[in-house]
Amino acid sequence: MPARDINYEALYAVRGKVKNVLKHPIDECLSNQEISDIITILGCGIMEKYNSKKLNFGKVAIAVDADADRKF
Fold this sequence. Notes:
Layout: H1 26-30, H2 33-42
């Protein structure tokens, strides 16, 4: 039996550090390849075009490494 059922689960390998979308203007965030890919994979759009009925997955978990270069 495989570790995941490809009919219900998908994996996306994030390359590098993902931009913090809460701290940057929307146009700068959308120009980031990782953010753009995640929006496309989820399939439900963003902002005014957001439609939860188009979401490609019932549950979404995004796991990233701890921010090692954060200054306290």
